[in-house]
Amino acid sequence: MLVTVALFVVGLILICLGGDRLVDAAVVIARKIGIPQIVVGATIVSLGTTLPEILVSTTAAFDGSAAIAAGNAFGSIICNTALIAGLTQTIRPTKKVETKPLLWRSAIFFGVIIVLEIVGVLRGEFGRLAGFLLLAMFVVYAVLNIVRAGAEGGDEEESDKDGNEGSLLKQFIILAVCAGLLYVGANLLVDNGILIAEAIGVPQRVIAVTFIALGTSLPELVTSIVSMIKGFSNVGFGNILGANILNILAVIGIPAAVVGIPLEASTYRMDIPLATLVMAILIVPILFRRKASRLQGIALLAIYAAYCVVSFL
Prior knowledge:
The chain is mainly α. It contains 14 helices and two strands, in the order αααααβαααααααβαα. A two-stranded antiparallel sheet has the order 1-2. α1 packs antiparallel against α2 and α10 runs antiparallel to α11. The two termini are 31 Å apart.
């Protein structure tokens, strides 16, 4: 038991260190390249923090458990948006959001998730064709990020800062290492947290809706909180947006392309509509106002609380 507690603490330390330095590296990269913080958060940072979901879904597909992927992906979107974004926007709403990079990424998210809902209702599965189309869309999304990077220039508060932060390559290496620390730390925290909870008699269903459900979203949670504390909330906001796009394009696309994903009725009746709703609550007001409000955060947290209660019951 002592070893389990020690590993739990090590996991906590790793995700704190990884999240702290990852945000710093992301901000430096944004300054050096001359792009908004929301863009680096929605691309490089989100790819690093979404690795747990991608690995879980890919492994499940090859192990014959591809059905896990849909719940993993849409559950992560709901958790990322309603819990993590809800929490950070309630405490410190994001200000001065760049709407150009937000607009086309939001269009991709809502367009794809609406199509997935229609396919789910009509077919009850995401077949291999749907998987290949999602992966093709992922390639398009990646290319668009590269092509539009120059047009999405950094804002004034980013571009007028400069310092001796080292080379761009060094910052990318730091960011990659920190993403790895987040992944390892999250696994240690979740796996040993479950063992501790079982040892003290916590029911398995409670463990399922806490440690396991939150486990793959820990990197996004830590990154968002650290971004908020450091005053770089656009990095955390961009990370949530990018991670959610990757969840529907890659986390679902890879296992669907490999073997196809059978869907439970609750996925297209509750999970996909709810994921769409919470993203609309987060994104739509920001597109009009260029900033978030505390009211959005409170609404998202209330929805997540209700979702947990319904899921538990």
